Amino acid sequence: MSANGKSRSIASTETFQCVRCGLTVTANAPDGVRRNHCPSCLHSLHLLDECRSRMIPISIAVLRTGEWMIIHRCTRCGELTSNPICGDDNQLILMRMAVRPLAQPPFPLEAFGDL
Amino acid sequence: MICDMPRRNPGRERPQRSKKAHHGEPGDAFRCVGCRMDVPMIAPGTAHRNHCPHCLTSLHVDHRVPGDRRAGCRGRMAALSVTVRRDGEWLIIHCCQSCGGLSANRIAGDDNALALLRIAIRPLSDSRLPVSALLTL
Fold first, then answer.
1. What phi and psi values does residue B106 have, to the nearest 5 degrees?
2. Which of A78, A114, B108, B119 has the fewest CB atoms within 10 Å, measured from its CB?
3. B113 touches chain A (CB under 8 A)
4. Do the chains contact at B102 and A71, CB–CB below 8 Å?
5. pLDDT for B14-41, tens place per residue?
6. Which residues of B touch A112 (CB under 8 A)?
7. Helix (H, G, I), strand (E, B) or coil at B133
8. Residues of B in contact with A86 (CB under 8 A)
9. Which residues of A touch B122 (CB under 8 A)?
10. 3-state class of A10 per DSSP?
11. Which of these, A89, A52, A79, A57, lies nearest to A70 by C-alpha position?
């Protein structure tokens, strides 16, 4: 096996523990991309700026390409980051975040029924 | 021979009078970088208007604290998504088009409801999505 292949196999067994739910997850998602949030509760860790605090998912953003991004906010410093979703992310939590604004609208949604 | 028509642009005898420039100083209105609408600073429901009520576009001028004017970027910030605070208040997530920075801003009372709703339902209008997860419940 080449050195390159060996390093890839080591990387695929690397794990981390979620700071919120304690789930041990592999650092690489099944589709091969590097994870930065827990697939079960979608919480993350603020690794930049030496903050190392918990980051909570607050919103879903849809890019022009149709890709979904999770917006995380750091509970300590309030920094916002956006990360692409993984294939095995908890779809119920994703969906809950997507519909949450519509469940608490700041204006009556009935008015849009006429449009 | 040179005809003696009056010169169209005679040399100025006097320099132009100085005019008061309004470049970036806090006034009572600003012009939106997205739709060029003149927006009054006074907004219902908030003391800091930071985005256009019509197209929801903002400008990257604040760093951490709203109103601190410490960001040197001055890029255009487009509304990326909508989130809800614990108290039920909507926030717009803005994304800077030049540096990629994100910021969350409260909506104002006169924000365009149709534009807000369009951003809010964008995830749900995606067909390939976890809508199937809800249907299995």
1. -65, 150
2. A114
3. yes
4. yes
5. 777 776 655 545 568 889 999 999 998 8
6. 113-114, 117
7. helix
8. none
9. 62
10. helix
11. A57
